[in-house]
């Protein structure tokens, strides 16, 4: 015989209270004291890279490959996409600035 677990009103209230506490704590600790100017901004190149390249497959962090490797990868991948020349240049510039061998 299987006994069903019954949540009492006090137990349900406790779970609900704990869940609210966790959600509120996570939200306030991640945003407390930050203005819009404090939050990191993504560049257009980064946005295009994750949006266009991530449309068909997962993307790798730019630091995983060298500049030369990114040039080779993007040459072959851009042929398969409808990314225009301006976007290609913006994406490639982003990758060059963030490649493994980029100067920081």
Describe the structure.
The protein has helices at 9-31, 44-53, 67-78, 85-98. The chain is mainly alpha-helical and 104 residues long. The protein has a domain at 44-98: Orthogonal Bundle (Cytochrome Bc1 Complex, Chain D, domain 2). The longest helix is centred in the first third of the chain and has 23 residues, at 9-31. The chain starts with 8 loop residues before the first helix and ends in a 6-residue tail after the last helix.
Short description:
This protein has 104 residues and is mainly α.
CATH level 1 class label of the domain at 44-98: Mainly Alpha
Largest sheet: none
Structure summary, number of beta strands: 0
- Describe the oligomeric state of these chains in a short phrase: single chain
Radius of gyration: 23 Å
CATH topology of the domain at 44-98, by name, is Cytochrome Bc1 Complex, Chain D, domain 2
Average pLDDT, all residues: 78
The helix count comes to 4
Describe the global form.
Answer: globular
Spatial gap, N to C terminus:
66 Å
H/E order of the elements? HHHH
């Amino acid at each position: 015989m299987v006994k069903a677990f019954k949540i009492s009103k006090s137990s349900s209230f406790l779970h609900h209270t704990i869940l609210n506490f966790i959600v509120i704590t996570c939200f306030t600790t991640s945003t407390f004291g930050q203005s819009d100017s404090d939050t990191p901004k993504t560049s257009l190149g980064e946005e295009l890279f994750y949006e266009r390249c991530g449309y068909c497959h997962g993307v790798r962090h730019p630091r995983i490959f060298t500049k030369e490797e990114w040039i080779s990868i993007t040459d072959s991948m851009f042929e398969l996409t409808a990314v225009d020349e301006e976007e290609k240049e913006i994406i490639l510039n982003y990758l060059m600035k963030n490649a493994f061998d980029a100067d920081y």
